[in-house]
Design goal:
The chain has 440 residues and is an alpha/beta fold. It has twelve helices and twelve strands. The N terminus is likely disordered.
């Protein structure tokens, strides 16, 4: 199988296995665009909402014995995961043979996952399984830890930062340290928390004054113009010198999340961590796309506090776009989390939305879940919108990717890191003028 096919099948399989149970009818009848190719891995966000009840929960797992054979786990959710693999998974030894392919039901004693169809194939494939085995072992223990019932101190996040507080955004370590996250003292805690914060902090890292992405390295000259425009709003005190009037204005930053899925289900306090990094600025986050709402929900707006607003709308972006009166590169930008623009089943469907976003001349940032995923999207954009866009941020590894690996339950050989890579473009423009008076 060539790489493209592997990537393609991976995407579809990842999606189907996870969403099947709750929304199968919805998935089948809906357009593939903006939704079909984004992998959502089982249990990503359940853990975050579980934290609220942790204090009331009884401790059920011993920290020294977090490893369990999945199919025999004391946690029902983990046993379910084994059952999904039993049903939809791939035995890697069978996969390389012409003979009928059996489902993986033999549990590897080292990682606890059902990896092969039988003991015989387990021994035949043991050498090839070795590397991923240790990864799966770590995922096994992490996932049991999340559900262990211990107090999850690492999820006690800091609140608003002071106006004079200096945050270093170089990487996760510096961010946690300078933002005074109370209990981020193990790699496991970092993995748990980064998996949720990768969404807001990937955005913040691009905007922030101490961004890890530097002009001349990853940021282009055109990109610097876009980012500098946004920063005049995000850091109003910097404008004092040449624009006394602007200093007292608070313009809202609009972030349009196209094809929003998992990020639309994050608890509000996760998104507050973005707002806290820019204490002067109100944010309005627009979660747009067919999966931005649960099937029984209507489009709606919500205010988290006086500085953070959400809109949830399950329209396709190009339809939603028509409702917005005007776009301004100083206050508006787009963010697409692993959209799969280059995927054959989604590429055409994305076109009207990408086209609309490019017309605004506002910056657009895009993540991918591994190198191949990112470059697949980059190639498609280069082919489909040639001459219509400028580079803002050259494709690079995202400092704020999830540190936790997600595994494809349909094929345990495949793992990804959410938001592994990041890049940015914007519609070609020849001149930008900004008149703050027009924004009222
Ligand atoms: Zn087999
Ligand atoms: Zn194993």
């Amino acid at each position: 199988m060539n790489r493209t096919l592997i990537t393609a099948s991976r995407r579809l399989l990842l999606r189907s296995v996870v969403r099947q149970s709750s929304v199968s009818r919805h998935v089948i009848t809906r357009s593939l665009t903006q939704t079909a190719v984004r992998p959502i891995f089982k249990g990503i966000f359940r853990s975050s909402s579980a934290q609220d009840t942790d204090n009331k929960r009884q401790v059920i797992l011993d920290q020294d014995h977090l490893f369990h054979i999945l199919s025999k786990s004391p946690i029902a959710e983990m046993r379910d995961r084994a059952a999904i693999i039993n049903k939809y998974g791939t035995c890697p030894v069978c996969d390389n043979q012409e003979a009928p392919k059996q489902k993986p039901t033999y549990d590897c004693p080292e990682c606890g996952y059902p990896t092969h169809c039988c003991e015989d194939h387990y021994h035949q494939g043991k050498e090839a399984h070795k590397e991923i085995c240790s990864v799966l072992r770590e995922i096994n223990e992490d996932d049991h830890d999340l559900r262990s019932g211990r107090p999850m101190r690492e999820f006690e996040f800091p609140s608003a930062q002071g106006f004079d507080e200096t945050v270093n955004m170089a990487n996760w370590d510096m961010f946690f340290y300078t933002r005074s996250f109370p209990s981020m003292d193990s790699d496991r805690s970092m993995r748990h928390v980064s998996k949720l914060l990768t969404y807001p902090i990937s955005i913040a890292a691009v905007l922030h004054e101490s961004s890890p992405y530097k002009y001349g390295d990853q940021i282009t000259a055109e990109g610097m113009r876009s980012i500098a425009a946004l920063r005049t709003i995000l850091y109003p005190k910097n404008r004092l010198v040449n624009d006394a009037q602007a200093q007292v204005r608070t313009e809202t930053i609009n972030i349009y999340l196209l094809g929003a899925r998992a990020e639309a289900t994050l608890p509000s306090h996760i998104w507050l961590q973005l707002a806290y990094l820019f204490p002067s600025t109100p944010f309005h986050i627009h979660f747009i796309g067919p999966d931005a709402l649960a099937p029984n929900q209507e489009p709606h707006m919500k205010s988290v506090n006086e500085r953070l607003f959400f809109t949830f709308d399950n329209a396709m972006y190009h339809d939603y776009h028509e409702k917005i009166e005007k776009f301004d590169p100083y206050t508006d930008f787009f963010f697409l989390f692993s959209p799969g623009i280059g995927h054959h089943s989604a590429r055409e469907g994305w076109k009207p939305s990408i086209q609309k976003a490019l017309e605004t001349k506002c910056a657009m940032f895009i993540t991918g879940y591994d190198e191949a995923d990112m470059m697949n999207d980059v190639t498609a954009v280069e082919q489909d919108y040639q001459g219509e866009f400028d580079w803002v941020l050259k494709p690079t590894v995202n400092e704020y990717r999830s540190l936790k690996r997600d595994v494809n339950l349909m094929d345990l050989r495949q793992t990804i890191f959410a938001n592994y890579g990041i890049w940015g473009i914007r519609g070609k423009r020849y001149d930008v003028t900004h008149n703050p008076e027009e924004n009222e």
